[in-house]
Batch of 4 targets.
Target 1
Amino acid sequence: MVGASGSIPDWNTLLASRPQGAVRGRLAPSPTGELHLGNAQSALGAWLSVRHRGGSLVLRIEDLDKDRVLPGGAQRCARDLEWLGLDWDEDDTLTGPCAPYQQTLRQDLYTSALIELSRRGRLFPCALSRQDLRQLASAPHAGEPGEPGGGDRRYPPHLRPDPLPAPGWFHGEFSGECNLRFLCEDRDDTWQDLLHGEQRDNAGRRCGDFVLRRRDGVFSYQLAAVVDDALMGITDVVRGSDLLDSCSRQLQLWEALGATPPVFAHLPLLRAGHGAKLSKRESDLELATLRRAGVRPATVLGWLGWSLGLLPAPRPIGAHDLLDVFDWSRITTEDRVVPPDLTTALAGQ
């Protein structure tokens, strides 16, 4: 799918060649740390949603931020998912129509999308740094008169270049002097979430024009996720509820790129005792730590199945057996606090 050396593939040609007509989901771990129970809960939900309907799954490695990627992290993510009993149909070691499945090897595809966004008048360069934006936001008269949020916007319309560059100005060359931003429309986007029902958000008012490529060369999560989901033919995006506020931005990107968005479902989060969502700093809840403590995969899956609301109480169960009880109407929307002694409790089962 990636163009020949030195060439950027045409976006519309790429889009026309994507897989179509089948249920497709993705497991998309980031190898910036070890997978923990929270990651496992999201992966399990994505796997159940697609396998329950006889669909296929891809394993995509989201390694955009190369400076934070751990050596061997991608392989450990795959090993942890396999240990749980979650399988997939496509990755960089298996045959598949959407290779490569590693984001650092898909840079030409993201550049192709930027060219298309430029052609449609939705891309512009921005030389302002984060510090510049903070100073502008704190200025006494930041924001335009009568503008909801005023200077609270992360990048309001009055900061756009005047005039904006002509459509088609970007051809794939990067200067390293500017970020590239998406021109985000001030509009209400609505969508149906499989778990939370009808949702409404206005990304233009809430966050304004957002970065798609940093001046240091790193593409944004928002762009890469949409491009990869579009070109991989993903129909079901199941992820944690901390990403619910990405939907409005991503829906505008989907539309601007001429692609049909997937169905979204945002699962509840697992939280530590202090209330914050589990992070990769919670080493005692990493799957590798649980495995070393002698915890069985079926025990982890049973606890996660109960946490999601599929089981009345935790009990050992295999991933394929959870398919028999999976139904979106059973999934809870409530986050769950992980007890501090969970590792010991699971190891004793």
Target 2
Amino acid sequence: MRPNLSARAYRPGSPIIYVQAWVPEGTMNIILVSGRLPAPKTIILSRSHIAAGCIVLLLTLFALAALLNYATLRYAVETRDPRIFSLFSGVMRDEMDNSRAYLRDSLDAMSTRLGELQAQVLRLDTLGERVARLAGFRPQDLALDREGAGAGSVASVPAAPLSFGELARRLDVLARQVDDGSDKLGLLDSVLTLDNIKKKLVPSALPIKTGIFSSVFGWRPDPFNGRPSLHEGIDFTSARGTPILAAAAGVVVTSEYHPQYGNMVEIDHGNGLTTRYAHCSRRLARVGDVVMKGAIIGEVGSSGRATGPHLHFEVRQNGVAKNPARFLRTAG
């Protein structure tokens, strides 16, 4: 395929003649023809050369524009030309007006957001007071610190635009309120968590789901010899194999056969509280097991000194037998 040539007419003795041609590979051939040259000279330019030339041209134009701007400004300063000063002052004034408008819009948006955050803090304060009542605190003891808040700083979008200084002051007050509320809510969380743990460690759950309450705590005739004896727990009569449940969370400290209690499991609940589950047909918990309230630890039986299948349940405080019914009533 022949290149598409475009050239100026050439006459002997005329100046340099430019002949340009595009070839299929995308390059440009520039052929220089002159009577002063012994032979035509060809310059080949690729696309990358052309692109580089355009970039250099643009950079040169930008540099010239910057230089012209600098020269104009320098001339204005040296000659104090009022027309040029007026032109630059107008440009600077427009820029300052735009900056002020942007700053004002930003302050207005921040003020609106500040009002929204104050409303959220107020709602959290109200919620904290309710939780404080549930935890047994006086609401005023856990109210947010409003020192320095000032009138009108409570949860509302400002009617008039705020200055930067006033906005900074309110943000500082809000930050103190958030820190204060975080500390007090953390205290509430600790108290409620501790209270919840204590409740889980108190043996208040029934140790058996199906059965009949058959014997109370206290003095009674011994079922084997009829003599008065202290019954240190309560009994639940139920079918053999009925699951026995932990009355509270704790650690199994005893799982063994006892001559009187038969197969017995004992759980330590902390604070000196322990529970015993006696006369089991099977023991399903081992020493060292951590059990939760309601976990199955054995099955009803008649092992040891027993007249029939039943669960003998005891609660002890520092080794002294207590009436289990007092603890079980808290479950209701």
Target 3
Amino acid sequence: MHILFVTGEYPPMQGGVGDYTRELGHALRSLGARVTVLTSERAVQPDCAEFGDGIRVLPAIRRWDWPIWRTVRGLAADLHADWVHVQYQTAAFGMHPAINFAPWWWRRQALHTAWTYHDLLVPYLFPKAGRRLRMWTTEHPATTADLVVVTNEGDRLQLERKGRAAVAIPIGSNIRGRELSPRERAARRKVRGYGDDDLVLAYFGFLNRSKGGLALVKTLHQVSQQNPTARLLMIGEQFGASDQTNRDYLEEVEALARKLKVYDRIQWTGRLPDDEVAAELNAIDVLLMPYEDGASLRRGTLMAGLANGCAIVTTTPQAPLPELQHGREVLFVAPGDVEGMTRAVLSLAQEPELRATLQHNARQCSRHFGWDEIARRHLDAYAARSQPAPLPVS
């Protein structure tokens, strides 16, 4: 089977969707599939190599506008691709709606088309375009693609309520799990300037409004009032390559940190190799991920924390999330509840047994989200839908 992935971002571009596509591609290859990736021209590979770890990468797209329809059709024909599979996140495609309507046309060209929603955020279309029109544009591929994949139960239920069937396949961690010895952990903390008795909180991933950066800073402030050793390690880049509007939000977060006089307690790592990210996650005490829309298995940053055995404080899911239970794998707090986050962080600082329980169970939980299993579920879904259903009358 030959799969042509279409994605708005791909390494070395920064972004979770690109990392996901790379990991899924590798796992599919290990199961015998061929994988080609069509992506942004900004994703030029090291040494301009066309093949990266056995995956053919074509960084050829400058703008994701209407000509993409014929570009993909022609490439799929040249490759004899069995499936065209779009990895969709609105910002990664430049907020242009052309990609949303492409499956409708590709299926008329006899292309098997799959679509993975990495979120259901609505795109900008034009001034005064109402939310109903933008939501219709976002959900349109769910009615025209042969196969629709979502990464969490909440998105599946949202589409189901509108009569649109989707397969839920959770993402895996883009950061492989590792474990540090006590000596290695102490050495890692020392490099960052942290002592054994310091309370080191961490946040992993890009900042944007959905991830609760302001609540993060407020929690650090309140925790530091009760534990003067509290520090915050911000792991990774400050914002991603696909959405430059997050610069303004970063400035808001930094301004608040200065106002609350906790800016000097915050350290940014900048971009790190994956193995170094894993080491940092192993060296901290509490991973605080205050998503404003609640914890979800579509969050690669959360999955990385689980894979690396972090004691995690995060926000209550909006949709059922039976894989994670409060007090077993994580501690849940309502979104925006800074006092609740503060209590949760301090409880982990004061109760090492609870922290150890969360750390152990987080690693155990992450084993259910391995990339080989995710790839197998994709192959099963492709096979089950190899004969496309009739297109809806529009």
Target 4
Amino acid sequence: MKRTSMTRTISVAAGAVLGLSVLAVPPAAAEPDGPSSAELAAASAAVDDTGVDGIAWHTDETTGTVVVRTDSTVTAAERERLRQVADTVEVRPTDGVFDLRLAPGDAIYGPDYRCSMAFNVSNHKGKHLLTAGHCGEEVETWYADEDGDVLVGSTVAASYPSNDFAVVRYENQARERPGGFTAGKAEVGLEATRDGTASGEHSGEVTAINVSVKYEGGVAMHGMIEADICSEPGDSGGALYTGSTALGITSGGSGDCSSGGISFYQPIIEVLAAYNVELD
């Protein structure tokens, strides 16, 4: 930190010679106890630049660290490379593989994939549902059954990678569409529930926000929510919520709901703003 020294003139008390002054120099400013925000941001960027896949990282300014979770594909040499980025980097190995929770068959169906729907939304163009962007990138037309007999709608917009959300317009506008949610922001320590058609409903705690993650194959996401809630292939696009407050859309994770795991979510508020839609 650049120090600046300051001086000030103090008038001498009554009885002293008028015009006499003394110079008082305050103590030098103390050095900060930990790394600055700029130093942490630089360390976070350097983690991204290592080229290591299978990692998820976020800045924890309360502890002055960049926390990096590594999945089972990351080698010991790669973990050491991450530690060498900066003294502020804390590497935490995690079981399982960080991957997108996409799978063939269940919930809303495409020709080769199944995903889950998150929330119903609407705008002046009609009624829609939200799902994961990597689902919307793969599938143009969605059905309610595996055989493709009951049409749900078509993907009209998708943002992936970096973000992970998509909008599907209902072709049958009379279709039953449950709602009752309002949008909110996730906070560390918040109890939340994830619902997906592959593994059902599971609850846990938000463990980090503004997380970056590199999935298997190097696909990167940023600004995600991390929670200690399991998920499985087919849960992509499902809802993360607390009570009647919508928090996010399931993107990916590691592990499964037998052995446990963690998962990552696209924050809902960004989605609503990007597509100018409102929750039903």
